[in-house]
TrEMBL record:
Species: Phytophthora fragariae
Pathway: Amino-acid degradation; 4-aminobutanoate degradation
Full protein name: Succinate-semialdehyde dehydrogenase, mitochondrial
Keywords of this entry: Oxidoreductase
EC number: 1.2.1.24
Pfam families: Aldedh
EC top class, as a word: oxidoreductase
GO biological process: gamma-aminobutyric acid catabolic process
Gene3D superfamilies: Aldehyde Dehydrogenase, Chain A, domain 1, Aldehyde Dehydrogenase, Chain A, domain 2
Amino acid sequence: MPNNVSGNLNAPTIMLAEKAADIILGNQKAPPRPDVAVYEPENWETTQRRHERDIRIPTAQLSSGLAPIGQRQYQPLLSKLQRPELVRAQGFIGGQWVEAAGSKHFTVEGESCDGTGSCSCGEHGGRRHARCDHCSRLGSARMEEDHYPVRAKLLRQWAAAITANCEDLAIIGSVECGKPLAEAKWEVEFAVGVIEYFAHEVVRSSGFLISPSDPSQKILVTKEPVGVCGIVSPWNFPYAILGLSLGPPLAAGCTVVVKPAGETPLSMLALATLAEEVRKLTFAGSTQVGKWLMGQSSNTLKHLSLYLGGNAAFIVFEDADLEKAVDGLIKSKFSNTGQACIASNRIFVHSSVYDSFAAKVVARVERLKMGPPLEEGVQLGPLIGPSAVEKVSALVEDAVNHGAKVLLGGKTSGLGKNFYEATVLADVDETMRVSREEIFGPVVPLFVFSSEEVVARANDTAAGLAGYLYTRDVARIFRVAGELECGMVAVNSELVTHVRAPFGGIMESGIGREGSSEGLQAYQETKMVCLGGLE
């Protein structure tokens, strides 16, 4: 995955509050909880100690800092929404919408949609960071008091509110990220499924009792929340990552500080302002940034969940159903216009079916409709920005210079500066950059192979997130799936993401798992209590 998380650590943050799903969605009329102490910027530090004993903090917190949106800013977006008030431009900290403390701002471009409109977002600096940290630490104690039925109810209410506003949320995400509207709707629905799943999973989370050899003793093992969690989220799947990153810690009883990527702050994304009291950090983004965060967390031994880049191999054996393989490739490669960490990056095709498969791929890709993401029927939208277009162009140029043949596309589109044509490359080999780097764009590089030595070629990468395999041979399925060095393998399918299944990679693709019971356990500590004198 490229560096798709904003390097601006002061970018907006959003705060989740107990029984405040409407506030999360941006409802300006929703009042803060009456038991939340509100600190104004000018008096917060002086009243901090006086209110510390009485303050009641919302169940969870995310911190965000968007500056006010003017009537002329993002007007094309606001006019398309049933509830324009969902687009907010402030931070939500300690139960109150707050403006950025300083004068620094950054711009969120609307060019992903149609080149019109932009939003000025305020940077939340050290003072807001301190306030958010203070609220999150106090909120952590409050969260531990709320038993799992309360947390489960909160998550269900939040999921219902998101469902009720699915259309508007999809439009916001589509405009910011540039993905087709149908994909944005799927992403919102996926986030709802994740949140609902963990609302049920927390009820099933329990400890256990051990009977040691001494009959006068009993050992009780319980699960407790890990504490304040910091979450860093990328721009490419803001809603899906929001669900995966917030569902588990909220269910476990943790408070959460979240910072959005600077490219897509309006979609309510996720990252943390780090402080010593933060006990766990979750990050989805580039391997380079993940390594840096791991180093920064080492002095305090923070818990880490890292979901980093991929370089997925897509292997088509000679006995594969080519129609299904082509269909799976289209879905796994072109989701979000190729800007996904689990996207097929290297397509290995057996020599006996290589030409036939390539022809079928070109025929299918030619029919994909590219255009503005809100336009009906569009399947491919723009890339996230000019730098993304430059990288994809450089990778294709390098491949061609080293002998690759362009079967389709291979250049920028006339639709706009952020559009790059869907591209199919033949005769690709390991000397080319597309073999070693995550493409993050609509490019299909076709490699040829003749035996199961392809497994070694597929494993010749530091990334280990996902892999895809098409064959009818059952013995080969288990053999190759077991030999592929990655955290997830899809066989005769493009699906490697499911709310009930663990999501994550190995090697430089990350640490930990999202989804399933493992996703909940990642935000829990195990405590052993030995009870004696029970004769």
